[in-house]
Fold this protein.
Amino acid sequence: EPTLLAQILGILEQMWRQARRAFPVETATMLQTSASLRLGRTGFQKLSSGTDLAARWHTDSTNLANSVQCVLVLGVFQGGDVRFDVNGRTGKARSEHTASRGSEAEVVVVPNEHGTLFVGHYERLWHAVDAVTDGHRTIFAAYATGAVKKFDDAVLQCGRFTLAQAVQLKERRVAVVKALAICSHWPFIHAL
């Protein structure tokens, strides 16, 4: 196993241990998805990163329902506070015009720094991130996606394949599509 991959998987497994400790039911649900589509020995299926990202009020609606997400914060920076509204918001996500369903005074503001780990239900918890005012703030977000659950459910409903067989079929199809895409760039293919 390449060193960088091993290091990344090691960090993900540390994040996963914290998630399991705080949310045992949700992490058990995450482990019910296709093992071959998960990252290492975790229930995470996706890893996203971003630097100096500010975000308007939103939920992470593509995350797997009733799952948790871990966000690891790295860097030396000022600003970048994370805001949580446990009452929810009215208005369209990521727009300028949202309002708390409770009171704006009840919004929780969480300062963070290098090494902060957020673990929570970001698929349903409204949150926003303030702009970084100095330095650089990088996040690594590990989560499960609802798309994998849909894939798993479709395979099980079909009844013709195991999850492992379906994943192998998907990987073969992707390889064929990639090969065809490469071939379509060759001039003589169009002449055939």
Q: What stands out?
A: The first strand starts at residue 46 and ends at 51.
